Amino acid sequence: MELLSFGNTGWGDELLIATLMTIAVSITALLIGFLFSAIFTPLKLSNNKFLNFIANSYTTVIRGVPELLVIYLFFFGGSGAIMYVASIFGYYEYIEINAFITGSLAIGIISGAYSTEVFRGAIQSVDRGQFEACKVLGFKKHIYFLKVIMPQMLRLAIPNLSNVWQITLKDTSLISVTGLVEIMRQSYVAAGSTRDPLFFYSVAALIYLMLTFLSMKLINRLELNYSRGF
Amino acid sequence: MDLSLMATSLPKLLSAAIVTLKLLSLALFFGLIIGLIFAILRINKNPIINKFAYGYSYVFRGTPLLVQIFIIYFGLGQIEYFRTTFLWVIFKEPYWCAIIAFALNTGAYTSEILRSAFETIKPGIIEAGKSLGISNNIIFYKIQIPVAIRQSLPAYGNEIILMMKGTSLASTVTLMDITGVAKYIISTTFKPIEVFIVAGGIYLFMTFLIHNLIKYLEKKYSF
User: Fold this and answer.
1) Is A2 among the domain residues?
2) CA B179, CA A69: separation in Å to the nearest integer?
3) What is the gyration radius of the CA atoms in chain A, in angstroms?
4) Which domain covers residue A105, as residue numbers?
5) Of A76, A80, A198, the CB nearest to B75
6) pLDDT tens, position by position, A30-62
7) Would the CB atoms of A72 and B76 count as touching at under 8 Å?
8) How many folded domains does chain A comprise?
9) The domain spanning residue A73 has which CATH number?
10) Angle in degrees, CA B67, B178, A177, rounded to 5
11) Is residue A79 part of a domain?
12) How far is B123 from chain A (nearest CA, A)?
């Protein structure tokens, strides 16, 4: 237990900060994922074959390729791509992007592919009559989407979004390969310097379990709130 | 775009694909056995057995696969006593550690898939068996298990694809699977996009094959 004390002798405070980092990356990644699904879900549902193709390639490729490979692409390719763009504007110095940004962007793109599928499914399971009723009543397109389709869609999407959240939370452990100090990286460092990997990885596992447990409780409450009236 | 690099890295990545496939098939084989055992424990009426099986699947589904591999590979070797047992022959190899971690992980998910399949079997099928005078054991092995397996095929197909992506984590414990080789080529050539296209293409092709295999099986065993 001494190993987990706070201060200079223990790893408690370091692990706490690392836990907060994991939560921060997960939430950022989830939000980036929502942004991506806000772009790709309409493309998936559109009648244009070409737009469908773009959205389908995004979700198929990302969901068919290991997360670790995507992270390596961003980690090794990220600064190269930025430097290439900068060189067009006449800037030739080395640019290093923050591990937090690359990490949450990589996980966000992965999470976006899953949440796109969730939102597509949810919108498609909203009763067709609702769409028709809105058209008959002559609602403007964005109003009928926000006021009629969205609330019904969210109710259907939340159980599956909680899976997406769990996947995203667990995927953040992979960012440790890029050196961002989250739970896994911190346990790796602690395990290395104390030569006690069994203890620190078990602590890491317990922290992850706690995070998934607490977030499930929170999401269940959210689900109840959105299912009012059904 | 460096086409010659893509051409030279393709055979290297393809030979690494054999490692990935070996890891995947062994993990799925052991995982299916573990999953079936724990699914049967889950539907047991005894609350202690039942809770134990639930705890197993909860822990392995609630923690990242990376932690599980690290605990098994780095953690278990730390126990002095453990190193003297015959199990150490298996656990000192990163290859077997990875397979054990994958099998335990996929076993947890498989047990959940099979449990829900057992629970959704129509009671009429079991009643029909009973009214024909078939014994409970035979009903279980010859009726419930085959029907449950058929019902869980679509979900299990997804699990196979998730596991295939999971095998990429073997590269973190020094194994040279597709991702391991891809990372090696990227870090020596600094051409991440080309390598990603080739390695990703191989993974996508495998996903495509698994997807179609499951579709074929679903059709074959549909009723």
Assistant:
1) no
2) 6
3) 21
4) 21-226
5) A198
6) 999 999 999 999 999 999 999 999 999 999 999
7) no
8) 1
9) 1.10.3720.10
10) 40
11) yes
12) 27
Residues of B in contact with A67 (CB under 8 A): 165, 168
Residues B165 and A171 sit within 8 Å (Cβ to Cβ): no
Spatial contact of B82 and B91, defined as CB atoms under 8 Å apart: yes
Per the rule left: phi > 0, alpha: psi between -120 and 50, beta: everything else, A17 is alpha
Question: Which fold is adopted by the domain B21-175?
Answer: MetI-like fold (1.10.3720)
Contact A76 B192 (CB under 8 A): yes
Note whether residue A212 is domain-resident.
yes
Q: How far apart are CA A175 and CA A178, in angstroms?
A: 6
Q: Is A75 part of any domain?
A: yes
**CB neighbours (10 Å) of residue B83?**
13
Its pTM stands at 0.89
Is B71 close to A80, i.e. CB distance below 8 A? no
Nearest to A195 by CA among A15, A3, A8: A3
Residue A188 CA to residue B71 CA, distance in Å, equals 11
Domain chopping of chain B, boundaries: 21-175
pLDDT tens track for A139-188:
887 888 888 888 888 888 988 999 999 999 999 999 998 888 999 999 99
